[in-house]
Amino acid sequence: MSFTEDGNSDADISDSFVTDAEDSENEINRPGNLRNGPWFTIIEPNSFVIDRLPSFSPDHGPVGFDANLSPYDYFEKFISEDDNSLFDIIVEETNRYATTTLNANDPTPQGRGNNWKPVSKQELSAFFGLLLAMGIVRKPSYASYWENGNKNALTYTPNFPQIMSRNRFQEILRFLHCNDNALAVERGQAGYDPLHKVANIIEFFNRTFEENYSNNYDTKNRAGSAKMTRKPNSKGKVVKAPALVHKYNETMGGVDLGDQFIAQYEPQFRSLKLWKKILFNLLMTATVMIKTGRCSGTSLVYVHGWFRTFMQSCRSIIVEDRVCCERNSMTGVSCTDETAKWNRGTTRNIEPKPLVSIQLKKPKLGENTMGNENVPGLRDTPFYVSKEEFKEAVNASPMLPLFEIKGTIMNKSFKSNPSVRTQESIEQVHGEHNDLSSCAKCVQFLSKYVFLTDSQVVRLQTETTLQSKSLLWKDCRKLRITASSAHKVPVKETTDSTNFIREHLHPKFVGNKFTKHGQQGEIDAKVYLNSNGHQVQEKGICVSQQENWLSASPDGIFDGQTLLEIKCPVPSSSWSTLDQLFESGKYDVGKDENGDLVVKEKGSRGIYLQVQLTMYCTGLKQCKLLVWLGVDEHKYIDILYNETYVNNQVTRLKTFYVKKLLPCLVNEIQDDRLMMSKSFCKVYAYLIIYINTCTFA
């Protein structure tokens, strides 16, 4: 029931009041002092409880600003607090991250991490100042700012090395951090924040904006009627703008001009980490706004509104350079987002870019497909493990009537029984990888593809004498660690092995002028040896009898009992003779105290490791290394078998094979991303395609 201000009900009012067309004849009386006054709805006083009264807000606009302050003073008000400033947060987290990283990874003697010193607030201020200066003085790289003036006096910048050294600048940039990684919640768990890296910065700026700006702007909205229809586009469809676009338009302020200033003086900073881009963009935006707006009300309300909208948007699902919003909407890319897109056509700017994460065609030869679930298999037709699986698929397909036509080959093959018992498929789940027999899935794979009988070892050596020209040779190398690639295996278990495994299973290197030089030099050296009364026996791939996961491809057997390894270095401008090469110290062959030629155990090319593992696989105890430049320029180095060294290396390589390479190898073949040749299957005595892990070329 409605009441007037004096408490009388509408039933007691005698004055007339017209409500609408239907009630125009009804007259209601009310007191004269309320003839033109408002009506109020009275509710029970205890029907709701206010938790707290809203805090008093002063007038709308900046709080505590002096018009005579300099731009840096304005900047200080936003990055500094009484007890903690923005730079204090970054200094604390940067030093924490540097200490954690250096303690987790043992630095090398030559590493820059050995010289790390905790960064100070003053030093961090100088660091950001140099970044801003890089936006004004444009150079192609970081190092060019510290170049000596003798190289180019016109572009010399002497202030940079005076403020901070180049190595120190790169160290701070490397360890720059804004939050503690130990507090981050993993993706998929409750409380996960994709912007955890800059969460401290977000909270800091929200707090400082609220302290320095009073958002108490009163507004009055005129009441109006809602439209029954909306204007459609040319195709009769109503165009709906995403909610994020509305927020962007509400708080955009001078965004176009601000972005233009930032683009003109953007620092030389390149990083794939989103949080670093956000951090530097915030600092640039604050700098531009403080410089151009001098903390005016318009500038501050824009910065605060833009900051909140931008951070909320970043917490949405990020798809390339667009952000997904409500109702499956997606923001476009405007011409102000990139300086290179000015004056570009509107249609080309606002249309979404094509998706690149979905591959609708088979990968090209040599393309990286390892571990990519979106890449289809290499087979053209489905492959069925058993006859029952094949019949079940045909019965469920629209092609069933074709298979039921009697007298046809399709009907006979569909009704026939398998003549050979099919093999069981490999286990679907990996177990622990402590040794070769700890994972049931890998054990089945090893017994089918890696472990060889004596007859298979001999046949494999015979059929792979062409080595790199043989498909069988290439396939067998993918299943094992080879002597020539063993030096590339990561030494530490904590080292990322993705690149090595990818290149091992899906090699992209097809040769260059150096490999061609080596192949031709090897042929010339063998011709020379045979013409001088020596016998060089050709060998294919040699699988170790003790460890079938290890193999080697010797260049030949010299005079029946000695391993022959030929190396053909390419002369360069720094050396023209082998003596000059050996004395330079950059090659794996050098001279000892007596002046004799020796092979270094830790050479960069891994020659010593390759030779020792090859002797281990072939069972030979001595090797003759031939470094060949030509008939008139070649050297022999005798190498004896080092059993202790080999045992240590085999143990290390076996651990890597079991824990890292073998699981990836099994998954790649089972998921049909690794293709094996027909000759490979024949050697392993599989005369039909037996399980869903082998694909014919």
TrEMBL record:
Residues 70-215, 225-288 form the PiggyBac transposable element-derived protein domain. One of its GO terms (biological process) is DNA repair. Transmembrane segments: none annotated. InterPro entries: PDDEXK-like_dom_sf (IPR011604), PGBD (IPR029526), Restrct_endonuc-II-like (IPR011335), YqaJ_viral_recombinase (IPR019080). Residues 473-620 form the YqaJ viral recombinase domain. It holds the Pfam family YqaJ. This is PiggyBac transposable element-derived protein domain-containing protein.
